[in-house]
Design goal:
The complex is a heterodimer of chains A (about 35) and B (about 325). With about 35 residues, chain A is of the alpha+beta class. Chain A is built from 1 helix and 2 strands. In chain B, strands 2-1-6-5-4-3 form a 6-stranded mixed sheet. In chain B, helix 5 crosses helix 9. Classes of the chains: A alpha+beta (about 35), B alpha+beta (about 325).
């Protein structure tokens, strides 16, 4: 699951803030690998 | 734009374009055209005159940091064809210390700092300039203590009596630009906020800065919130509590696709008489050149609050003035 905020300026995307839960991703990986 | 090459779509395009040509395309000799022969440049570390020195200085910097990049974060400008344009250009600059130079033998260390250049331009040529780099941040990232680096500069330049004098108003030369900016409301508001802070009305930061503001200061590239703003402004004022604060140039702008914003050039002149950022008071007389940019947003106050602020002084030039007074090098 990801959520992003972006601010645009005259030269393109000027600021970006993106979040996803890396722990939740590792958890899914470790579930599979054990 | 009358008198400017038709290659440039507007004034910010000119400023960003010539910076790229000079620095990143290595076209040093375009400075013969883009910089006036007798240009006056005020660095906190001293006064320089003439474009020949600018070419040599640019080359020395590129020799020391061959992969130097200059990313234009903003160009906040005022003026017109008649009075001349003034650009306050905030630059995020990176590089690796791969060559020998002003910071000693190559260390291989990399740096990221900001600089703000206020340049007056007319007819495709820069003729008057004020430039502050975060020299303390650069020195620190290359392994120096900023105060020790100031002492090293004094020693290297032959001691307290013969070293290069940091810039003070008595050295100033009229470069031809006499503008004071514009009367836009956002410049007035930012000037009002800084005047209140320098007037020791410290509640101003909690009232007029967004609680989640993003900040950039000397040695501090990215910080946030009221405490960080207080640390910078109170730390500075506390070291020089009786010094005279003056705003010399004030711009406010509302541009398409940008938040309301302001650029100020200011100075603090007086005695190192208090405990603060610059340690134990020494009684040294100092002149501090300052520049700052602010972006405003709607949260927390009817007149808007500062959502992002980038303020610069050259702390090494301040330490140098203090050490020239104490002789403790």
């Amino acid at each position: 699951m990801g959520i992003s905020h972006a601010e645009f300026g005259p030269g393109g995307l000027r600021r970006e803030y993106t979040l996803f839960d890396e722990i939740a991703i590792w958890k899914q990986i470790v579930f599979k690998t054990g | 734009m009358k008198g400017f090459s038709n290659r440039w779509s507007d004034f910010p395009d000119y400023i960003l374009g010539i910076t790229h040509e000079i620095w990143e395309e290595r076209q040093l000799r375009t400075l013969d055209h883009y910089y006036a022969e007798d240009i006056v440049m005020r660095f906190p570390s001293g006064l320089a005159q003439g474009n020949a020195g600018v070419i040599d200085g640019t080359m020395a910097t590129l020799a020391e940091f061959p992969d130097r990049q200059l990313m234009g974060e903003d160009v906040i400008w005022s003026g017109d064809e008649e009075t001349g344009y003034l650009s306050s250009h905030r630059i995020l600059t990176t590089g690796t210390h791969l060559g020998n130079g002003a910071f000693g033998e190559a260390t291989g260390e990399s740096f990221t700092i900001r600089a703000i250049a206020d340049c007056a331009a007319k007819e495709d040529t820069i003729y008057d300039e004020w430039l502050i780099r975060d020299v303390a941040g650069l020195a620190e990232q290359l392994g120096w203590d900023p105060k020790e680096y100031a002492a090293e500069m004094i020693r290297r330049e032959g001691g307290v009596e013969s070293c290069v004098r940091p810039f003070t108003p008595d050295q100033d030369v009229d470069g031809g630009y006499h503008g004071r900016g514009n009367d836009n409301i956002w410049g007035q508001r930012y000037a009002g906020i800084l005047n209140d802070i320098m007037d020791k009305r410290m509640e101003t930061i909690r009232a007029r800065y967004d609680r989640a503001c993003s900040l950039g200061y000397p040695r501090v590239m990215f910080d946030y919130g009221w405490d960080a703003a207080e640390l910078f402004w109170m730390g500075l004022r506390s070291s020089f509590p009786t010094a005279k604060f003056e705003i010399h140039h004030q711009i406010g702008r509302e541009d398409e696709m940008m938040p309301p914003r302001s650029a100020l050039r200011w100075s603090l002149t007086g005695t190192h008489s208090g405990f603060g950022t610059f340690g134990t008071p020494t009684g040294a007389e100092v002149h501090i050149m300052g520049m700052s940019h602010a972006e405003f947003g709607p949260f927390g106050h009817a007149d808007g609050t500062i959502r992002r602020e980038f303020a610069l002084i050259d702390e090494v030039a301040v330490w140098k003035q203090i050490l020239m007074h104490t002789g403790d090098i």
